[in-house]
Amino acid sequence: MKHPPPWLFVLTGTTYGVVGQFTGLVMPYATEHAGADLGSIGWYNALLFVPTFLLFLYAPIVDIGPRRKYWLVIVSAIGAACLVASFQMKLPDQITAYLAFGFAAQLISGLVGSCSGGLMAASLPDELRGKAGGWYNIGNLSGGGAFAAIAIAMIGHDVDPRLIGAVVAVMMMGPSLGALWIDEPPRPRVSPREVFRQTLREVGGVLTSRSGITGIALSLSPVGTAALANFFSGMSKPYGVGPNTVAAVTGFGTVGFNALGALIGGYLCDRFNRRVLYLVSAALTAMCGIAMALSPRSPSTYVLGVTSYALVTGFCYAAFTAYVLETIGKSDRTAATKYSLFTAASNFAITYVGWIDTRFNDSHGVEGVVTSDATLNLIGAAVLAVVFWRLGSFGKWRHPAEPAPGAVEQ
Predict the structure, then answer these.
(1) N or C terminus of the chain with fewer C-beta within 10 Å?
(2) Which residues of 13-51 are buried (b: 16+ CB within 10 A; e: fewer)?
(3) What is the pLDDT of residues 240-264, one digit of tens each?
(4) How far apart (Å, rounded) are the C-alpha atoms in residues 274 and 280?
(5) What confidence tens digit (pLDDT) does each residue in 187-235 have?
(6) How many Å separate Cα 204 from the centre of its chain?
(7) Per the confidence metrics, is the pTM higher than 0.85?
(8) Residue 122's CB: how many other CB atoms inside 10 A?
(9) Average pLDDT score over residue span 260-287
(10) C-alpha to C-alpha distance for 219 and 407, rounded to whole angstroms
C-alpha cells in the first residue's frame, strides 16, 4: 500500500494540539487573569485531563464504520463547537460552565489523537515512524502553540470572546481537512461486536507481552511528561512577566522550539533506540527545571526557562510517539485503540506529575514547582533504566548507518 508522506501528520497534530494547548496554556492563563491561584489552576488542569485517561475505553468507536480520516473531521467539528462555547463563558462567575465545555472538548477531541495514531500505525512502515512522530508533534505542540499565543494575547487585551471562538473554529477545522488526503484503504464491513472482540484480543496481547507491559510502565512513569509546559502561562506573575511577553514566549516563542525539538527527536528516533532516547528526554527536562530553580526570579529567567523547556518538550513528544508506534507494531483494525491505550497512560502521568508539582507552590514558590518536576523525571529515568536493563526490554537497537528494522511483533 502506498504510504502518506510523514509531514502530512503535522495537520492532524495541529487539530489535536488546539484542545491540548487550551488545557495546557490558555486555560491556566485565562483563570490566572481572572484571579485564580496556581494551586486552583492545578486542580482545573487535572479535571480537564480526566477524559484523556479514559480515552482507550471509547476509542474503539473510530475503529467502526467510516474510515478514520472521516472520523477525524467529524470529531474535530464537535470538539471545536465545545471549545467555542467555553470561550463565551465569563470568568470567574461562570467558571463551572467554562470548565464543563472544556471538559467536553477534551472528551471528544481525544478521538482526533486516536484517529491520527491509528492512521500512522496502519499506513506507515517502521523506518518512517520516528519522522512521522516528529511531524505529528510539531502540529500538536507548535500548531497548538500558535493558537495559544493568539488566544492568550486576545484574552490579555479583553478581545470579544466571539472573535476568539472564530479563531478556534478555523484553527481546529482547517487542518483537520488534511486527513482527507491520506490514502486510507476502505475497511471491511465488520459488526461492532466483532470489532470489540478483536480489540480485546489485541489489546490483551499488548498487555501480556513484555514490550507492551514495559511500554505501559514507561508511559505511566513521570519520565518525559514535560508537565510544566501546562503551567508556564499561569506562572508569569512571580517572574514579573506581562501578557504580551507571556503570549510571545508560551505561544509563538515555543512554536519554533517545539518544532525544532520534535524534528531532532524524530530524526534520532529513526536511527537510535527509541526508549533510550525517551529516558534521555527526562534527563534534559530535569536540567531545565534545575536551572530555573537556581536562577533569580526575573523575566529573563522565565523567557530562557520556558523556551529551553519547549525545545525539550518537542523532543519528549516525538520520542513518545515513536516508541509507542514501535511497540504496537503494524496494525490496522484496532490501531486507534492500541495507540490510545498508551496515550491514556501518558496523559495520566502528565496530570499526576503536574498536580504534584503545583502542590509545592504554596510552601516553596515556583522554585519548588520546577524542582519537583526535575526530581520526578530523574528518579523515574533512573529506576526504569535499571529495570529495562535487567529485563532486556529496551526494544530495538539500530545503528545510524543502517535502515530501521521491521515492527515489533506482539
Answers:
(1) N
(2) bbbbbbbbbbbbbbbbbbbbbeebebebbbebbbbbbeb
(3) 888 788 878 877 778 889 889 999 9
(4) 10
(5) 667 677 776 777 777 777 777 788 888 889 999 999 999 998 878 877 8
(6) 24
(7) no
(8) 22
(9) 92
(10) 19
AA identity, residue 351: T
C-alpha grid cell for residue 92?
470567574
pLDDT value, residue 396: 60
Domains of the chain and CATH, by start: 6-391 (1.20.1250.20)
In SS3 terms, 346-378 reads as HHHHHHHHHHHHHHCHHHHHHHHHHHHHHHHHH
Q: What's the grid cell of residue 72?
A: 477525524
C-alpha cell at 235: 506562572
In the three-class reduction of DSSP (H, G, I as helix; E, B as strand; rest coil), residue 253 is classed as helix
Alpha-carbon span 30 to 24, nearest angstrom: 11
State the CB neighbour count (10 A cutoff) for residue 351.
23
C-alpha cell at 221: 512513569
Residue 397, pLDDT score:
54
Torsion over CA of 263, 267, 272 and 273, rounded to 10 degrees? Answer: 50
